[in-house]
Amino acid sequence: xxxxxxxxxxxxxxxxxxxxxxxxxxxxxxxxxxxxxxxxxxxxxxxxxxxxxxxxxxxxxxxxxxxxxxxxxxxxxxxxxxxxxxxxxxxxxxxxxxxxxxxxxxxxxxxxxxxxxxxxxxxxxxxxxxxxxxxxxxxxxxxxxxxxxxxxxxxxxxxxxxxxxxxxxxxxxxxxxxxxxxxxxxxxxxxxxxxxxxxxxxxxxxxxxxxxxxxxxxxxxxxxxxxxxxxxxxxxxxxxxxxxxxxxxxxxxxxxxxxxxxxxxxxxxxxxxxxxxxxxxxxxxxxxxxxxxxxxxxxxxxxxxxxxxxxxxxxxxxxxxxxxxxxxxxxxxxxxxxxxxxxxxxxxxxxxxxxxxxxxxxxxxxxxxxxxxxxxxxxxxxxxxxxxxxxxxxxxxxxxxxxxxxxxxxxxxxxxxxxxxxxxxxxxxxxxxxxxxxxxxxxxxxxxxxxxxxxxxxxxxxxxxxxxxxxxxxxxxxxxxxxxxxxxxxxxxxxxxxxxxxxxxxxxxxxxxxxxxxxxxxxxxxxxxxxxxxxxxxxxxxxxxxxxxxxxxxxxxxxxxxxxxxxxxxxxxxxxxxxxxxxxxxxxxxxxxxxxxxxxxxxxxxxxxxxxxxxxxxxxxxxxxxxxxxxxxxxxxxxxxxxxxxxxxxxxxxxxxxxxxxxxxxxxxxxxxxxxxxxxxxxxxxxxxxxxxxxxxxxxxxxxxxxxxxxxxxxxxxxxxxxxxxxxxxxxxxxxxxxxx
Length: 741
Fold this sequence. Notes:
alpha+beta, Immunoglobulin-like, 5 domains, ten-stranded mixed sheet, nine-stranded antiparallel sheet, flat
């Protein structure tokens, strides 16, 4: 069957986009926003010589010992910027053990306690009022000396809006300026640190660090909720404070363009519940290639702000909404080259989606939960997607090309439809032969089905031969052009790892419901380790362990460069640290080690771990899970407490270095292995079961031995026959460096 097919992972539609003039409030807002960006050379403000001024902001205390303070950039007759030159001291305590571990890894300290000579401050709290109560300020222009001194120290460099930032810092500041109070916005740059308190973020406190000179953004070293807003226990760090909660995402999408991918125009409606005490400014996130034309709130045109090429935008409601109110925000937009066309709010709660597609008549589309096609006039067709399950996001991958469809049947009787693209030629470099491509995908599907049952909400599968990592239910993105069958990639799994990961996302992919971005590691690590299990089953063990060693070495490099961060920090801003690599490779290692913590040495079975993965898959596809939920499921299958394991590998950093000396001894006709182990590089309370293998003429025997931090001696046995060989850390059961004698 030949078709022009466009695979959709999400969409929306609109017919007209009414334009509106700026309101008086928005004109003022734009003027105030520009005021926040003006250069400070020869800028008028107020100045005072200050001494022993102590200012406390949440977890931070700043002591301005002696120097000059300049108040600048006035909005609503109050300063929004301060420059201090003199002697000062900053002290910041981190209340969360998890975030202490992160800060220690990024900045080599677990609290900040250091002097500074200059600092820049951006504020929308009462910092200025407290200053003016204690010191006499006079009107004065900022001089060139002070300005150049501040510039030489990079001053506000890391505050200025960057597309690498999640939010537009200027607008976050401006929102707080319009609601100015003692709990308002506060940002300070000193030495290589930034401290930021933003009352309008899910986690209000952020400590960032400049890892390397020349960085364009700082690395988020510690992020946590404001004091008094909940527990800082590792298990509760996912409980963030969101301003809104999605109820439903709906919309229409008019598909056009030569490839059928362009949205022109589009309409999306977010139905939201207000969870903040009061709210007028609503942040949303939309792919930066999709341009917002206009915004409506409850059917009324409203103002919005969105900086060019930023994903984050802000809707300005005509009046404040109160906690418990609902609001419908409709965004009119257009554009192409995107993966997810709908706008979303910060809160990742999964909800139902209801979407209408208006498509060119000569194109065919396929997507999850797709309704019947109907004529819509003017050489166009229309169909409705009404999801049967909630999603965090729906994704889109459009492509218009000639396809043949080849159907295979899995062991479970499910149809797997391979779309054979005509523009992918066998002569292309890195082309995966059809037999290899199809067999790997079918084998992976059968492997997962035999262990984890039917994929959630799937009744047939379409395999799309381009793209990777994002796969909606029933739609597998597995590239047929992939340079993985030759060279070093061949020895770590070749195409098995690509096919395995792509297919695994039918069980653990876009339908997974996480509570916050602190669970983001699961979305990378679980499909990756599932693909490793498939590879180990389908190939011999060499590729599996070569791949694990490759992942281990990548973690080694991260730790050696002092870039390691706990997996549970989630998605963090960083130009230097390879966060995605850590989530995938270190996360896969966490699962591998958990597998051998649960390993039954008597039966040599990992059945308990497979049961853990199965329950994790089912749970995560049916409710929002936190890291604490993952631990509960693991402890249930293990049968005992696992806090010692997750405190190190999920909430901690670094790995053990084992220096091992062994000898064989005989006592009363029995044989033993004596181990002297020195474990370094980890906290004093660290412990970890290590897989051992002992060989004698009667064969091999596996033992799981708990080894703590520091120096320890162990006597392994008894054995009935004389011992011949000893192997430490069999199956690479622990992510470690081993020196065994």
